[in-house]
Amino acid sequence: MKVKAIKSFVGVVSMNIGEEKDLQPSEVVNDLVKAGYVKVIEIKSATPKKATEKPKTEDKTEVKEKAKPKGKATTKKNKK
User: Exposed site from 15, 32, 43, 52, fewest CB < 10 Å?
Assistant: First the structure.
């Protein structure tokens, strides 16, 4: 969330009057808002955008051996 400092303060988060920061929503930020040190300017969506690309999976196709020729062998034999 984006906040703007109404007063200067120092602590876990430190800001000067008029300074703007983009901070993660937390108990500290909530306390600063309640105490009047900062005001919320913009609240950003907490959920990230979905990825449009599908994750890649490993190719698990097996490597096949070369096919053996079908039919009779064509080798010549010596006939005596």
Answer: 52
Domain ranges of the chain: 2-42
Would you say the pTM of this structure is higher than 0.70? Answer: no
Contact 38, 5 (CB under 8 A): yes
Task: With beta carbons less than 8 A apart as the criterion, state whether 6 and 39 touch.
Answer: yes
